[in-house]
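Sample pair:
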Amino acid sequence: MSPHPFRGAHRTASSLATALLALAGSLAASAGPATAATGTGQVSTVAYTAAEQAAALSYWTPARMKQVSRDVDLGPTGPLSKPWTGKGIPSIGRLFFVNSKGQDTWCTGSAVTSDNRSVIMTAAHCARLGSSPANTYSDIVFVPGYAKGSTPYGRYAVKATKTPRSWVEETVNDIAAMVVATPAYGKRLTDAVGAQAIAFGRPAGERVTAFGYPATTPQRGEQLLYCAGASQRAPEGEQRVPCDLGGGASGGPWLAGFDSATGKGTVVSVNSHGERDGSSPMYGPTLDKTARAVYDAARRG
């Protein structure tokens, strides 16, 4: 649920692809000419040059981040969504980007354990448009621990996105991993902010805490919100949880075994889509073999 567009109610993969294309309207051509998009096996990669990474950091100034929050209002925050008032969770942050229509927007992401200490997990629709191979996104920047305009851990330009080829071609498996560049002035991402564990093949039925930065009022993406409840199995390889986080919370982690004292848990899914009216439940992909392939491609990058 990035603010543009908001994904609709749960439906079959083929009809979902059609609905998403209808919501997206007219499409931009493709990523910038220097951006390399490739695919190998189950995973599709978009790589951003050093120049594009620098441009992304220059683009997403504090003023622009605040402006995009002011520009999007998806209505009142739902009754199940609560502001996070506990210990700060620096491994969760806002993911700013320019979508395929040229709109400034954002999602949510979380830093996870990885060999390169530089991986975040999010939703595939926060990286590129589904069923539209040419329509990748640009100027992607992860801001860990974002809070009301504060960027206490700096900003990390994304140097590569990894998504399932099934998403690129059929809008199936809404999961993505992104590799961020290490700032010249700082540390690798998880050395700076810590990391959430990640698990694959976990069945539904455990209690999870879902986090995100929705574009609902009054927070408008400026504050981390959460929902908590037991996950349930859903059709089409998904799970659902009682949660009404709105658009902008897309890609936010579902943390099993979450410890509020440490801010740590285990990522077992990410926010993918809710009902069209923003009501509960929230759906997320089951982290299966495809998700594992996406993560493995990123953690070695």
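The CA atoms of residues 131 and 168 lie 5 Å apart.
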